[in-house]
Specification:
about 90 residues; alpha+beta; Hypothetical Cytosolic Protein, Chain: A; 5 strands; about 25% strand
Length: about 90
């Protein structure tokens, strides 16, 4: 018997995807926000620039997690989008 994939919805575009295809952002029990792990309230985001921009502009992650999203978390998500651009900037 094959297992069905676990589906989650992107907070920005509202499309359903396999959980493994999305980025997980979690508000942990201590009130902090972590990426890819931790226990607590979670929101999922497509790994593309449009969804990241939409979630920032309309505060979708903040609403889903019911807390403020630190700028460092947004920066880490942007670095995940553009790892080669960040490497080129560091080389300069």
């Amino acid at each position: 018997m094959s297992q069905r994939p676990i589906l989650r919805r992107c907070v920005a575009c509202r499309k359903l995807f396999n959980r493994e295809q999305l980025w997980k952002v979690t508000r942990d029990y201590q009130g902090g926000v972590v990426l890819e792990g931790g226990m607590g309230r979670s929101a999922y985001l497509c790994p593309n620039e449009e969804c990241l921009e939409e979630s920032c502009r309309r505060k979708r992650l903040q609403k889903a997690l019911r807390c403020q999203i630190p700028a460092s978390v947004v920066e880490m998500l942007q670095k995940r989008l553009n790892p080669c651009i960040d490497a080129a900037a560091e080389a300069r």
